[in-house]
Specification:
mainly beta, 7% helix, elongated, 1 helix, 2 domains, signal, Immunoglobulin-like
């Protein structure tokens, strides 16, 4: 009877599979791949592997801090310097505790163009207010749209995308501000 637990342990250890999968690695910020040319920004990412992540490199430079090494899920940061023209690409590499490696190339669009705010229709309402229908467009992606009315910034609840329709009720003279994924800004005064 004493040998049964040992037999069970032996059988279970024979079922264990070696870790042959590489870690998962990706970026959290910047999203959408839009970066303003010549700008420096703090990029953030993650790596995951059940065996523990022991190394994360960006373009060959180690970015994983020592206290995070060996943990299954790690976050990392690095400074991204975008060139003034052309395209930007970085290479993310992650290694797990048993030597499996993953490589991921991330391309960024160098976006110097601000979003375009198009007003399509305006309606006069009671109380001196206006209802304005329109669209915000951007070649990489509209990140957010904000209404500046009487000194207060009011974010509009809109989806992200390259073409975002909106309808807003505001006082005449209020200003719509649109920001794209590369932090380029555009503004338009309402009639």
């Amino acid at each position: 009877m004493r040998w049964r637990p040992l037999l069970l342990l032996f059988l279970l250890s024979a079922c264990a599979r070696p870790d042959t999968l590489p870690p998962e690695v990706g970026l959290v910020y910047p999203q959408g791949g839009g970066v303003a040319p010549g700008r420096s920004l703090l990029a953030e990412g993650y790596a995951f592997d059940p065996s523990g992540v022991v190394s994360v490199r960006v373009n060959g430079r180690e970015v994983l801090e020592a206290p995070s090494r060996g943990k299954p899920l790690v976050a990392f940061r690095f400074r991204l310097e975008a060139p003034s023209s052309g395209t930007a690409e970085i290479v993310l590499e992650a290694e797990d505790g048993v030597g499996n490696r993953a490589t991921r190339r991330v391309a960024f669009t160098l976006d110097n163009d601000p979003p375009r705010i198009q007003l399509e229709r305006t309606e006069r309402l009671e109380g001196g207010l206006v209802r304005v229908y329109g669209r915000v467009e951007d070649n990489v992606g509209v990140e957010r749209v904000v209404l500046l009315e009487k000194g207060r910034y009011l974010p509009l609840s809109l989806p992200k995308g390259t073409s975002v329709p909106f309808a807003v009720v505001a006082s005449p003279g209020s200003v719509l501000i649109a920001v794209d994924a590369a932090e380029n800004r555009a503004s338009r005064r309402l009639p």
